[in-house]
Structures are given as structure tokens and as C-alpha cells.
Specification:
4 helices; two-stranded antiparallel ribbon; mainly alpha
């Protein structure tokens, strides 16, 4: 491995004198497998190999049969245990209070700590792109457009001084084009 690294470094003009690996990133799937079902699979493989070794020695046939029976009998127990752990994890789902940060069980309508509502915040649809944004935001998080119509000032006619509603293109009094 060190030669490959040195060769690759030399290819780009680097001379590697020493190389130390401090850690390996393990994908989350592999980590879950190793901690749960993978550990059980390793235990079963160990028992299988042990039974194979016992079978080869003197009087080991009965011991090997016992180990095999033990594996067969414990399998349903291990599967039931895994299912109970999954159900317990599902039952412990919590909602964090947006007001005080306290953890509350799913299904509660009000925080047990401060009494604030745990209902999801109201949503406002962006008039420009249609994305949903939490109520109270002034600009869309998706496109940056204003979420509430911005009040514009009345337009005053430069010729006659009449106040015209925002967005008017011509003066309502004299007909002059408004800029």
C-alpha cells in the first residue's frame, strides 16, 4: 500500500517519506450492520465453527449437535429481541417545543414545560414560485421574493399634483403619463 501511495505522489511531484492513517470513515449502513444483526451473525458463525471443530475430535459429535441445537433455539429469541428494540425506539419519538426546547411525546398538543402550542407552524405560499414558507417570514426561502405585498407610496402627478393609487400609469385627474 505504501508503494502505491509513493508512486501516486511521485506522479504529481511529491516525495512521500512517511504515511500514517488515523481513521477510516465507515458508512452508516456498515456501522448499523456491525452493531446489530452483524454481531449476531458473527456469533452464529463462531458457534458454527466451534461445532465443526468439536465434531472432528473424539466424542465431539454430541457436543456439536448441542451447539447446533442451541443456535437453532436462540434464533427466534434474538429476532424477537430485535423487534422489541425497534418498537421501543418508535415509541420514544419526541417533539421539541419551539418555545422552550423541552422534549414532549408525539401526540401532545401543548408543551408540558411551558404550555406553548406544539402544533406545526402555519405555512405561507410564495406568490412567485409557490414554495411553502413558515408564517411570519418576509421573504421566500426558495426564490427570495417578498411573501407579503409591499406597500408602495401613492404616485403624485408631476403636472397637476393629484395623488394617484400605487401602480397607476396615467393621472386620474389630467391623464398625464406617470413615471
Amino acid at each position: 500500500m505504501a508503494l502505491k501511495i509513493s508512486d501516486e505522489g511521485a506522479r504529481v511531484g511529491l516525495k512521500i517519506i512517511d504515511c500514517v492513517f488515523e481513521g477510516i470513515n465507515i458508512p452508516e449502513e456498515a456501522r448499523r450492520f456491525a452493531s446489530g444483526i452483524g454481531a449476531q451473525a458473527m456469533m452464529m458463525q463462531y458457534m458454527k465453527e466451534t461445532a465443526g471443530e468439536l465434531k472432528g475430535g473424539e466424542g465431539g459429535g454430541a457436543a456439536a449437535a448441542g451447539v447446533g441445537a442451541g443456535v437453532g433455539l436462540t434464533m427466534p429469541f434474538l429476532m424477537a429481541q430485535q423487534m422489541q428494540q425497534a418498537q421501543a425506539a418508535q415509541a420514544q419519538q419526541l417533539i421539541v417545543c419551539p418555545s422552550c426546547g423541552a422534549k414532549n411525546p408525539v401526540g401532545m398538543k401543548f408543551c408540558g414545560q411551558c404550555g406553548a402550542s406544539l402544533a406545526p407552524p402555519a405555512k405561507v405560499k410564495c406568490p412567485n414560485c409557490g414554495a411553502e414558507n413558515p408564517a411570519g417570514m418576509k421573504f421566500c426561502g426558495n426564490c427570495g421574493s417578498p411573501l407579503t405585498p409591499q406597500p408602495t407610496a401613492e404616485v403624485i402627478c408631476p403636472k397637476c399634483g393629484t395623488k394617484n393609487p400605487p401602480g397607476t400609469k396615467f393621472c386620474g385627474n389630467c391623464g398625464t403619463k406617470l413615471v
